[in-house]
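Record type: ASSEMBLY
Status: queued
Input:
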Amino acid sequence: MRLEGVLTAVRVSAARGTRLRTKRVESVRVLRGAAGIMGFLALWELGVLAHVPILAQIPAPLEVARAQWQLLHEARYYVDWLVSLERVSAGFLIAALVGIPLGLLMGWRAKFRYLTFPVFEILRPIPPLAWVPLSIVFWPTTESSIVFVIFLGAFFTVVLNTLAGVRAIDQRYVRAAISLGATPAIIFRRIILPGALPSIFTGLTVGMGITWSVLIAAEIIAGKSGLGYMTWEAYVAGAFPIIIAGMFSIGVAGYASSAVVRLVARYAMPWTKPF
Amino acid sequence: MAEPDSHSLRRRLRSSQVLLGAAGALAFVAAWYLLVRFEVWRFAKLPDPLSVVREWTARRPQYGVSLYTAAYYQDIWTSTVRVFCAFALATLLGVPTGIALGWSRSVREFLFPLLELIRPIPPLAWVPLAVLMLANQEAAMIFLTWIAAFFATVLNTMLGVTSIDPAYVRAAYCLGSRPQDVLRHVVVPAALPYVFTGLQIAMGVAWFSLVAGEMIAGQAGLGYMILSAYMDLQTTTIVIGMVTLGLVGFLSSALVRWLGERLTAWQFS
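Status: finished
Output:
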């Protein structure tokens, strides 16, 4: 009895010790990360103050923080956010709605894949931004041409990842289902779709990242509004701190939208660990 | 699965694959041609494939850019040099950074959060800052291309190092290896396949951001060629530029892939 009690006490205290240690390791990790970021900011500030060649041209972090604070009080800043978000979501959603079914069909039906894959491989290496001029010529409004280019940015990644996901499904599952009398509709719904889902979401996450990059360039080249245009306008007007505040805002926007995709992925695939 | 006619079956499958692929590509070009020719909706504004080919192979091109003009090769050369400079810099700086981040926990803990803070900023959002920081136009273009390629290289290299089975590292130490031996004989070879995955992605994003950089702030190169053709409303030249970009991008990715397959040959044996 007594021995057992002692043993339990030892075990509990050992467990507490590990927990304490992991907690300490965790806090060291956070501190070190913060130190790295603070060190970077300090070097940047000092570099600007000391007129180090390349850094001398750019605004110091404190100025950037002030500019960001001012931006937060301007209505136009939020309008720019909204416009950019609208463009990205439109292009991204169209890419998902067109790309996922297309990729599924290409993966599922070999004939269809043979027919369409070469065209994809021809078009894919053309960088999305190279489509901007042709897109402006083709589409009736600037807005639709920007959305089209964003769509292209995500489209190829979504299609190719969906296709790869379907092709990676173990053929034995499909054969087993067929021999148990499953109809094509059931195979599609129970095997193809869930089997490809992780890969589809990888494609969507990567595609979301590309989307923001494309948006910025498209807004600079063709836009009159949005976060990318705001950044470029700040450059043209010589309001340099706003450039970096704009870059920061774009980073936050991109990060947040990738987080949304990951969240959806977790709800759509409760059986996998979140990546 | 060694059935007697499985070989010929496979061959027949392959030939039908090639035929279907050719049919698909032909259908695409034909659809493009017909849509433009019969002026369906706004396709009337685009050039048809035949006139693109004619312009591309003309000795005296209508708009000044074809296989027979020096300007065409100058633009290709300018862009290619920029991409390869940036790519080389990204490899030289990115691979060691990635190895350091993956191998040493303190380096990772100090630097990784900073990296993760900067990484979500799309490479193209750096355009104004790059132009501002680097007075030299060439340097600004290379910087933009570099920053895109750098992150892809660093992250994949780091992933490669962190996914090494620690047992290998311990075994090497046990057998008396010094840290530099472990680095040379365990860490680098084990990370190499990941490094090349990173480099392939890097090559793709390098062309991607170079084109945007040249369109926004360039005075030469393929991206600039496309944009100036747009300004002069020469849609055929735009398409020639796009196709060229696709070809050059494809070839440079193929080069990286070929190099990677040669250097990590043990994977495929």
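Annotation: Residues 2-57 of chain A form one domain.
Annotation: Chain A has a mean pLDDT of 83.
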